[in-house]
Amino acid sequence: SSAGTAAVTTAFINNGSYDNCGINRIIVSPTVVSCTDIGQSTVALIVFDDAFNIDSDDVVVTIIDTLAPVLTAAANPSITLNDTGFATVNASLLLETAIDNCGITSKNTSVREVSCSDLGTLPMMIIAEDSSGNVANISITVSVTDSTPPSLGMVANTSISLNEQIKKEQI
C-alpha cells in the first residue's frame, strides 16, 4: 500500500485446510507486513476445528515492494548561477514532493550542472529510486538565471590632455 503495509489474509496462505468435523476458525500471524519485512518472512497458519483441536504450520513468503516513488515538480522551478557562472542542480529543490511507501534512496537529475550557456529555459528529467529499485521520473523545464552584475574593469585615475588629438579608434 502507499503506507508501506500490506494485510496478510488466510486467502494468501491457506490452500484448502480441512477437518472431518468442520473448521471453526483459520488465522494467520502476522496479519500485517511492512517495508521492514521486505524479503523472506515467516507467516504462521493456524486452524481451529469445531472440537477445539488446533493445527498450525509456518510458510515462508516473499514480501516485495512494487510501488514506484511519486514525484511532483515544483511550480516554476529555477536555478540561479553563482558568481562564477555555474550552478549545481539539486533534484530536491526542483521537486514539490517526492514520496514513496518504503522510502526514497536517491533523487538525481539528467543535468548535473548548468552554466551561462544554459541561460533561459532548460528541459531536464528528475529520477527517483526507492530501496527496492522501483524508479520514477518526471520531465520538467527549469529557468536558468544569472543575477550577478558585471564587474567593471576601469582604468585607474588618469588624465586626458585637451591638447592631444584623439584618434577615432580610441573612442
Description:
- The chain contains 1 helix and 13 strands.
- The chain is mostly beta strands and 171 residues long.
- The protein has a 4-stranded mixed beta sheet with strand order 7-13-12-10, with no helix packed on it. A 3-stranded antiparallel beta sheet has the order 2-4-5, with no helix packed on it. A two-stranded antiparallel ribbon has the order 1-3.
- The protein is rod-shaped.
- The N and C termini lie far apart (73 Å).
- The model has no long low-confidence stretch (mean pLDDT 90).
Annotation keywords:
171 residues; mainly beta; 4-stranded mixed beta sheet; 1 helix; 2% helix
How many H/I helical runs? 1
Average pLDDT metric:
90
- Percent helix, as a range, is under 10%
Round the Cα radius of gyration to an integer and report it. 33 Å
The largest sheet has its strands arranged as 7-13-12-10
Q: How far from one another are the termini?
A: 73 Å
Q: What ranges have pLDDT less than 50 throughout 5 or more consecutive residues?
A: none
How many β-strands, per DSSP?
13
Order of helices and strands: EHEEEEEEEEEEEE
Structural class by helix and strand composition:
mainly beta
Approximately how much beta-strand content do the residues carry? over 45%
Largest β sheet strand count, sense and barrel closure: 4 strands, mixed
Shape annotation = rod-shaped
Which helices and strands occur, and which strands form pairs?
Blueprint: E1 5-7, H1 10-13, E2 23-29, E3 32-34, E4 39-49, E5 54-63, E6 70-73, E7 78-81, E8 86-88, E9 95-99, E10 104-109, E11 113-115, E12 120-130, E13 135-146
Parallel strand pairs: 7-13
Antiparallel strand pairs: 1-3, 2-4, 4-5, 6-9, 8-11, 10-12, 12-13
